[in-house]
Amino acid sequence: MKNDILLMNKELPGVNPLIAGEEACSPGHFFGPAVREYYLIHYIVSGKGTFETEGKVFRLGAGDLFLIRPGQWSTYTADARNPWHYIWAGFSSSLDLSYIFDQYVISSERCLGVFSSLLKCQEMGDCAEYFACGKIYEMLAYLGRKQPAEETEQISRYILQAKNFIDTNYAKKITVQMIADALNLNRSYFSTIFKKYVGKSPQAYLLDYRMEKAAFYMTACGYTPKEAAGCCGYTDLFNFSKMFKKRYGISPKAYRVLYGKQRPSV
Q1: Which phi-psi region, left, alpha or beta, contains residue 21 (left: φ > 0; alpha: ψ -120 to 50)?
Q2: Does residue 85 sit in the same domain as residue 163?
Q3: In terms of domains, do 125 and 154 share one?
Q4: How far is Cα 71 from Cα 39, in angstroms, rounded to an integer?
Q5: Which residues form the domain of 9?
Q6: What would the pLDDT profile of 73-132 be if each residue is shown by its tens digit?
Q7: Phi, psi of 182 (to 5 degrees)
């Protein structure tokens, strides 16, 4: 039994699904040697088989995935007694997937549900490619969750998450404690690692980010100091002006006159 799912090349950014399907192979059925210009991943639902690539031979069974990268020669053969049944997905990608595809074979029984639901894309009509794209991203998320990261990698992740939290919430009344809570970290520990790796405290980073945004709003958008303050989480114009002057050496009003453009009147 073979089920080829016909997809269109919609040239989606990031991950672009190209082929998908499943097959319960006959004994000894093989494919290759062949090379492709896209990523191809097979998930083994049941049975056994052999995957050969770049001088290596892998004997695989249910729950295993074998990964074929663009430009990689490979051959795969179903077992003569217990041939495999697998589901596959092929896609091109502009992403750096080297971290996920650093091995030829991965065991991941939790991916069975993802690959099984991937087959439902044939029921989605014109949206089949978008559905398949979502499932491939879900698969990448599972495959990317490997061993716990080294301490420095984990800290780097905390810093990036903290910066993103500030970048997307600076207009609200956020505090360092709120950021630490969002990361499930002790505030003191969070402040220590942030200052060590960023060079300034979380509070200083938040303040500088807000002031830079306020300056942008006044110069590029023509906002008044009061409007800029409101957009950056300040309800007290006096406190905002004080912080702004400390950061830039002049008041918000003077900064706007000196560097900004006036917003056209309606």
Answers
A1: left
A2: no
A3: no
A4: 9
A5: 2-144
A6: 999 999 999 999 999 999 999 998 887 888 889 888 788 899 999 999 989 989 999 999
A7: -65, -30
**Angle 138-141-143 from CA coordinates, rounded to 5°:** 110
Query: What backbone phi and psi angles, to 5 degrees, belong to 85?
Result: -120, 120
Name the amino acid, one letter, at 227: E
Q: Name the nearest CA neighbour of 22 among 100, 118, 109.
A: 118
* Domain shared by 132 and 157, yes or no: no
30 Cβ contact list (under 8 Å, min separation 6): 75, 76, 77, 78
Examine the pLDDT at 40 and tell me if it is beyond 80: yes
By C-alpha distance, which of 261, 177, 170, 161 is closest to 212? 170
Please give the model's pTM, rounded to 2 decimal places. 0.58
Residue type, 9: N
Distance CA 255, CA 196 (A): 32
Q: Is the peptide bond before 17 cis (omega within 30 degrees of 0)?
A: no
- How many structural domains are present in the chain? 2
In sequence order, the 6+-apart residues with CB closer than 8 A to the CB of 41 are 65, 66, 67, 68, 88, 89, 90, 139
Sign of the torsion angle spanned by Cα atoms 138, 140, 146, 152? negative
